[in-house]
Prior knowledge:
single chain; about 325 residues; mainly beta; five-stranded antiparallel sheet; binds beta-D-mannopyranose
Amino acid sequence: MEFDIKSLKTPDFIKRYPGNPILDSSQVPYESVLTYNAGFAKFNGKYVSVFRNDYNRNKENFMTATVKINLGLATSDDGIHWQVASKPCWEIHTDEIRHVYDPRLTVIDGKCYVCFAMDTWHGVRGGVAVTEDFDKFEILNLAAPENRNMVLFPEKINGMYMRLERPMPVYGRVPDRKESFDIWSAKSPDLRYWGDNTLVLPAEKMPCCNSKIGPGAPPVKTPYGWLALTHLVNKVDYELYAWHRNWNKIYYAGAMLLDLEDPNKVLSIAKTPLLVPEMPYEKEGMRGDVIFPGGMILEDSGEVKIYYGSADTCECLATCDIVDLIKFVKNEN
Ligand code: BMA
């Protein structure tokens, strides 16, 4: 499909929170430079967020310092105003694992599951951990490299747990779409052992996208299907704002509906992105023009809270009405 990258625009029914960002490094009471790509859930009567905290590199030393990352915990009564816990909640550095990052949260049967990515000396690995107190995290599964951006469905479907994931098949992919990574699924009887991997959405089927895609927020159940947010990427032939040279990828939020009984079946995909980087806090930061959705909460009122990492620097919120969002995903607006 032909499309004009410059004409892409956030639809009017999406309202960015006027006080954005909702979370940034100034709120973090320990070493912090960048606070972003967070996961969100409602857990034990509170809103909780686990966020990525990059802490030892800044604009000046960006090319020379080795990145250090831990995960922080924040809680909120309204999903908008956040209090950050006094210390990081999860940090791993071993001879093999460099750091854990980009958490996404799903509550199943009273426990909070955290999907995460890990940079290791042998590639990027995605996995699933469980926590009851956000202090101890038990890793249930760690996939072989190269795979990340995992998100869990919040219940068993036909007797199996399911996740969406994003392998990065650099060698096997057709030469003209080399960095076009796709969305896959996997099933598990117990959240530890995963298999039955299935291609759900190839990147070339994502409208208005010339590069890779990946799962965004964990899917939310609606009467019309599983509502799943994705990220999608367009590579451009000019340089975008970043703390380093040659940044040329625009990240957007996209949305699709998956069949309730068989989430491997895509029912519809919004034909344009749901969120396009337009605001200064989305266009300027460690990497400008990045919108990286990681959380979505459907309130009883019908309001949808969409949380996204902005410019790889801070965390932002946009809201909309579920009716408008479903219409948009079904391309009925
Ligand atoms: C992806 C991941 C994310 C990041 C995004 C934009 O590949 O590394 O953590 O937000 O790129 O830089």
